[in-house]
Every structure is written in structure tokens, then in C-alpha cells.
Amino acid sequence: MSTQLGVADIEYPESDGKPMGETDVHRGWMNRVVDLLQFRYRRQRVYVTGNLLVYYEQGHPKRYVVPDAIVVKECEPGPRRVYKIWEEGQAPNVAFEITSRGTKREDTVWKQRLYESLGVAEYFLYDPTGDYLKPPLRGYRLIDERYDPIQPTADDWLECEQLGVEMRVNGGALVMRDIETGEELQTSIEASDAAREAAEARARTLEAEIERLRAQLKSSPDNPQG
User: Fold this and answer.
1) Closest C-alpha among 80, 75, 89, 77 to residue 52
2) Model's pTM, two decimal places?
3) What residues make up the domain containing 208?
4) Residue 123 and residue 192 share a domain
5) How many domains does the chain have?
6) Contact indicator for 55, 85 with CB cutoff of 8 Å
7) pLDDT digits (tens, 9 = 90+) for 37-51
């Protein structure tokens, strides 16, 4: 009797066994990019995740990559333990890497070539410290199965066609905005805080208007108590 494992029996680990080993700055930006994109695509059929094992060849559990963030359009959202490209039926549309001293070569060489071969339509690298990438934001777009650098606009925006956003570094921080509306992308917490502040401002304006009307009424010659 053969003891060889079938394809269906092969185990795909949920961790690569490596510590994250990044600075607070880099880890914070990894989480922020995911949060920005998850909120943008809330209630849509789009899967956004980060720091998840992505397996790209069935039957070979050592062939995986761990992107800092990915976006997969026309894909059911919801938590996954790993992402298997052959089961999902598609590679990510966009991948992001937050580049550090320890990941520069991997991000600019190995991952870039791998994402290109997998058909990831657009690939962006961001260095939040500005120490390892010059310029600190780079983008690549798949054209004829090869990555071409995305050229910035006159005011240094890089366009992501897949997501309908553009991004640039402002004061060292990565800013993303919607191309059509020009509105900056927010996390769910930022959007909630902005909505609360707007509601509080409206309440203050309404209260001031009520006080103004009361004072006007009190000083009116037709007011018997005036």
C-alpha cells in the first residue's frame, strides 16, 4: 500500500514560524494600510488582508509569500486562515509591502519578481522612514506580463488603477485618496471620530442659533416681557 500523501492531504501551515521582527513604525503602517483598505471596501465583495500566508502552488506548502497587505477584488470577504490561489481562483489584484532595512532586498527583488509572475496587477512599496527606498514610495503595474514602474504625476501622486486611488508621501506619511472625489481614505476609527466631531459641530451651531433666536425674541418690542 502506498504511503504517499495525496494532494488533498498536504498540510499548509498557517504560520511561517518567523517572528514579525519589525519596528513599531513599520508594524503600525502595515496595520494602517490594511485598515484603510478594509474600511474603503466595507460591505463590498472585496477581500483585504495583511501578514497572511499566500500559497501559490498546489501541492508545495513551501511555496508561499507573506504580503504586508493585499486586495482581491470580486472575492468574498471574511477571515481566512491562509490564502490558496488555486482555491480562490485568482491572485491578489494589488500587493503592498512596508519596506525596512531587513526587507529591502526581499521587497525589491524576490517579492517583486514573484508578484510579477503570479499576475498581481499592481505592486507598491513604501518606506515610512525614508531610509531604504529613494523615493520612499514606488509603484509597479503589470503590462504584457512584466512590471513597469508607475510614473508619478507632477505633484508626486502615484495612481493605483485597480483600486481607483492615488497615493503619495506627505511629511513622511503615506496618504491615499479617492481619485474621483479627492477624499482621503480613512480607517473605521478615523471615520467614526470625524462623524462624531461633525455631529458635535452641528449641535453647537444649532444651540448657538437657538440662543440667538431667544435673544432676538426677548428684545423684540412685541415681547410683553421685553
Assistant:
1) 80
2) 0.84
3) 187-226
4) no
5) 2
6) yes
7) 999 999 999 999 999
